[in-house]
User: Which sequence fits this backbone?
């Protein structure tokens, strides 16, 4: 057996090793279980490691290799703990679901289970997927393997950290305002949100129904496409799911000849950290070297996207989370004196502060007298954001931006200021509002921490986007091994305000 | 429009001076549980009376991650109701979330419809005391029913005084159609008739049995009063969740005078929800929950819009079953029945079908009507059976009717035959034969009996011939007795007159 | 929906008072302590002030996006699917009585 480096192994390579008989599924799973044992104390990516099940199932895959021969068979995967898995406790990193035993399995998860992946466990997240750092988890704090004093991003921080730390070959996450892409960017891996409706939401514990999507977090773009192939498909149990017009293809492009790459000026005016900006500009140079043309475009309503999102998402969430009431499952407060007490204390004790904040905003925005001013208005802004993209995609084929305005920030540095935390998603939110596919790939380091490049495509342009990302990935040649560095101080970037982000037109690319 | 039907109420109840005449203004909402196989948004079976929590799934239990999907047949049934009410079926409709907390609502929101419902702007014509009224229909929309709550530990089984409550989710998620009228109903009696006839119409569509004991159909009434002839609407109160016609009428009969009294005393009517206690005959306010009305409606993001194709609607319209109102008119025309008789026979599809079978089997229109409405209906009621499921088939009843028509058996004997047909499940001819119930019409046979009776009653003969014509009734009775009730009364009458007038 | 605004003045619209916070907490069935209410009022006011940016736009004629997909008429056949066995349905319930989900007194 060859010595495998879980920090570098891709699913594609692992599959080749399995098929060639150079490693067994059980041995491959053991590589990851060993890595989990080694680094979990520092990273804390997993809420639950299902090591026994994983070991047993991987052995079964070996035994029945003839029958279990599909492209995903035997490949170890981590699943964000907001997707229900029958027989395995699913908590959403919330006290209110601390003991919840699902009675069914999410469709997307079931689809990969049916392809005989080996599930390693359920990963940590911001409670109910609300957050950008995974610090809102009621279970534990996850550390970014690149610098353990920083956050892995969120809300799919556990999945991103697990993949980056070699604790999983790949992982499933969910993205509502950037929750796959931003942690992927901060952890130096690939993360993708498909077109809204491409992957079934049945079994994804709902945060914002019109924005949520499940997607892959992987070590390479090829792996991302491979996993995506097995996630997509119209599900009769999800009325908002659709069949993709063409099957997901495994990418092979090495050039971008003829591609028009749009660069939105508004995304560069939101206070991008200088190091991030530098990596981004270098990447744009590569884009042109590969034969594409960079075109400056305008998405004029970008600055309104975040306000709209912070009404729409909490409003839908306030209704989606109303079912957590201590009656049919989950946490129940002790000795409720009557029904109202049951509801109020169960929810007051069961939900963390960020979740409560969002439920309050959402309830307020929908309440009598405020609908038109908030929710009604936000849905109109959403139309304008969509129209901006439609107009842009008449001129360009894909749009490029930094995924996150900053690299990984220190744990605890934004927890006192919800608005500062919300600003982490300023580049990722518009794609959710418009329902468009978007991917983040690592494009370099800044002060030793990964920087992510985001590509956004028109609806159902997954293949075009994956091919372009693949070509860029090859050209960038990012080294994907995090150092698990001990905490060290980061020099303040000149002119940079780490406490907040403001709209600075003078920073826009000229 | 229905102004002349509004029952003006005299003010001044209880001896106070008369200050004016008032008229009631009533609007109604009817909720109908559909008889689809499965629930509105999931594949659990719609059942009745089963043990608790046998028909649930992640969707109707509102487990995390579960999603709704619309039941196509429920939409079809809803359109049929809308068509029967002459509504405009909207080309596009969407669902909304109606948010509130209650244990029978597992998601803490009900998926319902709000400002883009399935259908709007219709009307329903109904009859009250021989007069036709029309009530405008505001809307027909789709939603899901709540689960069943049972309150335990108290004395009355109601919320007040209970120690705890139990939730059974079998019913939760059953497709529910809401029909909302304009406030066009002019009186409690009209309200009762309206609901009765509307219910019969929905039953005729085959979309719901509208079983009232099981709560398959429930109604709310919004009631206010205003000075007779005024166009303004007064403040209304709401009587909720009734499933009995009688209670509805009683509740309205209690609430309307209460409002009149209050207004005449210079008080203001509070817009509130009331509970009617049939034992005391009074309405009392339900505990008001201030935020209960802030439902925070927003479009349901888990469902996509429904675009109803006009061609599909026309297809449904072409296959609508015959509705009671139309059938009553047809019966009047086709069978020459009075409106009253046509209404009795035509309102229920099962009874109407039975009647038409009897006619088709050869019985005369009117006699068939009388027998169906009379003996047959009495039999069904006594035995607790549905029309068509009685112990006498339409074909056999038709034969009996014909036997009466052709004089084989007298009307009174035929009733006896009918009873025996129920008990013995036998053919009328056989029963007549076996029990010797055939009518005697043979003149010579009857002549003998008549002569005998006349001879045996000389005093009565004297009376008759002396001018007391009505004594003939006595003779008829004697002849009937002597003949075991089998004499043909018509022939007996002729023979007696001939004998007595001679 | 033409629902009139509770407070017509522009500048007040983005402020949320502690009373509002308590009302909304009641509506959302969230128990919040006294100090929590005060803190939350400040946080929510700040968020709402930011959100209020949207009022800069003149968008009366823009249609709202309720559904980002261009899909209509997704329905399912009226065909029965197996329900959960009762034990599974009740399995996660914190309180059960007579095969039903039990809740404390509602009166």
Assistant:
């Amino acid at each position: 057996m060859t010595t495998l480096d879980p920090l570098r192994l891709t699913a594609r390579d692992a599959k080749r090793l399995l098929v060639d008989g150079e490693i067994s599924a059980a041995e491959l799973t053991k590589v990851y279980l060993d890595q989990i044992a080694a680094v979990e104390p520092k990273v804390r990516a997993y809420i639950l490691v299902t090591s026994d099940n994983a070991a047993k199932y991987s052995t079964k895959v070996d035994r029945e290799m003839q029958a279990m021969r599909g492209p995903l068979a035997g490949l170890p995967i981590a699943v964000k703990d907001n997707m229900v898995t029958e027989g395995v406790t699913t908590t959403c990193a919330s006290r209110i679901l601390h003991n919840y035993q699902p009675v069914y399995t999410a469709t997307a998860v079931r689809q990969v289970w049916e392809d005989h992946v080996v599930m390693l466990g359920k990963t940590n997240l911001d409670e109910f997927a609300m957050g950008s750092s995974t610090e809102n988890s009621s279970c534990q704090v996850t550390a970014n393997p690149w610098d353990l004093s920083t956050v892995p991003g969120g809300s799919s921080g556990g999945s991103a950290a697990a993949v980056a730390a070699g604790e999983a070959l790949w992982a499933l996450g969910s993205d509502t305002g950037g929750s796959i892409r931003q942690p992927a960017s901060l952890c130096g891996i690939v993360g993708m949100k498909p077109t809204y409706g491409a992957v079934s939401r049945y079994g994804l514990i709902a945060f914002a129904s019109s924005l949520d999507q499940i997607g892959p977090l992987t070590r390479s773009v090829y792996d991302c496409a491979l996993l995506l192939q097995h996630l997509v498909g119209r599900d009769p149990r999800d009325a908002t799911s659709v069949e993709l017009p063409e099957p997901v293809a495994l990418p092979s492009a090495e050039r971008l000849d003829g591609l028009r790459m749009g660069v939105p000026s508004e995304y560069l005016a939101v206070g991008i950290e200088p190091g991030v900006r530098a990596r981004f500009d270098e990447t744009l140079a590569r884009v042109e070297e590969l034969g594409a043309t960079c075109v400056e475009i305008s998405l004029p309503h970008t600055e309104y996207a975040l306000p709209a999102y912070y009404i729409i998402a909490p409003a839908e969430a306030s209704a989606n989370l109303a079912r957590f009431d201590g009656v049919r499952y989950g946490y129940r407060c002790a000795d409720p004196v009557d029904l109202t007490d049951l509801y109020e204390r169960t929810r007051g004790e069961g939900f963390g502060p960020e979740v409560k904040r969002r439920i309050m905003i959402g309830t307020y925005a929908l309440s009598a007298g405020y609908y038109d001013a908030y929710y009604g208005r936000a849905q109109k802004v959403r139309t304008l954001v969509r129209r901006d993209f439609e107009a842009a995609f008449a001129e360009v084929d894909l749009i490029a931006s930094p995924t996150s305005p900053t690299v990984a920030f220190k744990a605890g540095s934004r927890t006192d200021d919800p608005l500062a935390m919300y600003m982490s998603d300023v580049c990722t939110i518009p794609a959710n509002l418009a329902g468009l596919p978007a991917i983040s790939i690592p494009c370099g380091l800044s002060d030793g921490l990964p920087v992510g490049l985001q590509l956004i495509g028109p609806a159902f342009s997954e293949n075009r986007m994956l091919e372009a990302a693949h070509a860029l990935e090859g050209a960038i040649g990012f080294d994907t091994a995090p150092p698990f560095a001990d905490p060290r101080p980061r020099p303040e970037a000149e002119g940079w305000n780490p406490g907040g982000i403001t709209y600075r037109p003078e920073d826009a690319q000229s | 429009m229905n102004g002349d039907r509004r029952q003006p109420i005299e003010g001044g109840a209880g001896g106070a001076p008369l200050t004016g005449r008032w008229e009631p203004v009533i609007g109604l909402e009817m909720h109908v549980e559909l008889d689809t196989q499965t629930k509105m948004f999931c594949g659990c079976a719609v059942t009745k009376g089963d043990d608790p929590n046998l028909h649930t799934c992640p969707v109707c239990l509102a487990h995390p991650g579960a999603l709704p999907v619309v039941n196509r047949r429920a939409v079809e049934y809803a359109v049929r109701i809308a068509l029967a009410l002459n509504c405009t079926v909207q080309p596009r409709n969407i669902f909304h979330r109606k948010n509130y907390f209650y244990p029978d609502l597992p998601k803490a929101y009900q998926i319902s419809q709000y400002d883009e419902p399935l259908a709007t702007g219709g009307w329903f014509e109904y009859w009250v005391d021989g007069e036709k009224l029309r009530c405008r229909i505001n809307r027909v929309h789709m939603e899901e029913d709540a689960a069943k709550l049972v309150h335990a530990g108290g004395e009355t089984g109601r919320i007040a005084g209970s120690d705890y409550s139990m939730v059974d989710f079998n019913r939760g998620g059953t497709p529910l159609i809401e029909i909302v009228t304009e406030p066009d109903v002019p009186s409690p009696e009209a309200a009762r008739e309206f609901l009765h006839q509307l219910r019969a119409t929905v039953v005729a569509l085959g979309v719901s049995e509208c079983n009232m004991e099981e709560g398959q159909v429930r109604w709310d009434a919004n009631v206010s009063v205003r000075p007779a002839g005024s166009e303004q609407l007064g403040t209304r109160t709401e009587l909720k969740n009734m499933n009995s016609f009688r209670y509805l009428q009683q509740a309205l009969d209690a609430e309307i005078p209460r409002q009149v009294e209050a207004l005449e005393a210079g008080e203001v009517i509070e817009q509130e929800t009331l509970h009617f206690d049939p034992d005391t005959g009074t309405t009392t306010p339900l505990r008001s929950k201030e935020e209960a009305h802030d439902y925070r409606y927003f479009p349901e993001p888990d469902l996509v819009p429904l675009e109803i194709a006009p061609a599909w609607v026309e297809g449904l319209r072409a296959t609508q079953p015959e509705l009671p109102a139309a059938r009553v008119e047809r019966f009047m025309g086709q069978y020459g029945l009075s409106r009253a008789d046509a209404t009795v026979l035509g309102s229920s599809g099962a009874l109407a079908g039975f009647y038409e079978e009897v006619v088709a089997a050869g019985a005369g229109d009117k006699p068939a009507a009388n027998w169906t409405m009379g003996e047959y209906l009495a039999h069904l009621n006594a035995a607790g059976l549905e029309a068509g499921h009685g112990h006498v088939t339409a074909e056999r009843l038709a034969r009996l009717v014909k036997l009466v028509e052709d004089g084989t058996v007298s009307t009174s004997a035929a009733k006896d035959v009918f009873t025996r047909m129920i008990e013995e499940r036998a053919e009328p001819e056989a029963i007549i034969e076996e029990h010797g119930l055939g009518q005697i019409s043979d003149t010579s046979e009857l002549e003998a009996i008549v002569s005998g009776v006349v001879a045996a009653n000389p005093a009565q003969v004297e009376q008759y011939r002396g001018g007391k014509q009505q004594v003939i009734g006595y003779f008829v009775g004697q002849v009937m007795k002597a003949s075991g009730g089998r004499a043909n009364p018509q022939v007996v009458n002729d023979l007696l007159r001939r004998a007595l007038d001679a | 929906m033409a629902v009139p605004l509770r407070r017509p003045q522009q500048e007040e619209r983005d402020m949320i008072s502690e009373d509002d916070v308590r009302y909304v907490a009641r509506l959302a069935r969230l128990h919040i302590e006294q100090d929590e209410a005060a803190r939350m009022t400040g946080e929510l006011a700040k968020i709402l002030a930011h959100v209020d940016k949207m009022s800069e736009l003149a968008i009366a004629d823009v249609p709202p996006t309720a559904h980002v997909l261009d899909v209509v008429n997704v329905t399912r056949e009226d065909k029965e699917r197996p329900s959960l066995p009762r034990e599974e349905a009740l399995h996660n319930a914190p309180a059960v009585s007579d095969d039903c989900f039990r809740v404390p007194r509602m009166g």
